[in-house]
Amino acid sequence: AAPDMVIRALFQEMKANGIESIPVVVGGIISDREEKIIRELGVKAVFRSFDKLETIQKHVRAIAAESFVET
User: Fold this and answer.
1) Is 70 exceeded by the pLDDT of residue 27?
2) Exposed/middle/buried for 60, CB within 10 Å: 0-12, 13-18, 19+?
3) What is the model's pTM?
4) Torsion angle of alpha carbons 55, 61, 63, 68, nearest 10°?
């Protein structure tokens, strides 16, 4: 399935289950065109096979920090 179809289905299920506020990050072999589309759908970050683990960790930690601030 095309990445945007999978992301649309994921977001629908998340909304149906009341967890749409959880940030979504994806990784894999994703073209620049597909990345643009899925980021417009609401994906917070897209990682590719050539991204260094340290870079991924840094971005995921920053997304988590901004998304899960205690109130």
Assistant:
1) yes
2) middle
3) 0.82
4) 180
